[in-house]
Amino acid sequence: MAQYRIDWLSPDDPPPVATVPAAGDSPFLLIGDHAGIAVPARLGSLGVSAADMARHIACDIGVRGLGEALARMLGAAFIHQSYSRLVIDCNRDPRSPEAIPAVSDGTLIPGNQAIAPDEAAARIAAIHNPYQDAIKQAIAPDKAMGNARVLVSLHSFTPIMQGFERPWEIGVLHGGGDERFAIAMLDVLQARGGIVVGDNEPYRMDGTDHTVPRHAFATAMPYVEIEVRQDLIGDPAGQDRWAGIIAEALTAAFSRI
């Protein structure tokens, strides 16, 4: 069993993992690597301004609400991280320098400068490990029974990055492992019409991704990583609208595999 440093978190800090339990026998497991915005009390503000903490560098804006809406619509479990990606990025290999970013999209993160190995290990043990273990435990019964539940990783992206306006409204990321479901999802969304769909845009699934490869690739678990533009899911109405679009597409894609 993984060793956690829950004592590193204070009694007033939220648990590292939040879960909306499944309300039915859904074939989907929803996850949100960057849904959280909390910072442990011992780290203060990480030296980051409130304005910067409200930006995409701190969390995937809108993903928590999107995931909760999707969970309601699908009767699926939604496992998401409680803490900001600036504390530790749970979609990065914990050994990577990107796991505890010193700079994010040009913004210096003072609380992440010259992190001692013991401090990095404590963040990994208290936050990264419990999140990854929760996903592993949720998947384990399906593997034991031979079922092929689909891992659905939810992310969001900023409308403008480094001066470049991103036209996509939703992106489907894939690359490695069993891509059949992701490709089916892409086909369904493209055939729907009326929305701008990116195929591995605005990001590609590559060596920087950690969660989906860790849990889905080795066992050929069907998966899809979804990116939704943040200005479209910044409020409950937008989150419900896009949850409806995604739920419909997930269901249609599942019927094809």
TrEMBL record:
Pfam families: FGase. InterPro entries: N-FG_amidohydro, UCP029730. This is N-formylglutamate amidohydrolase. It comes from Sphingobium phenoxybenzoativorans.
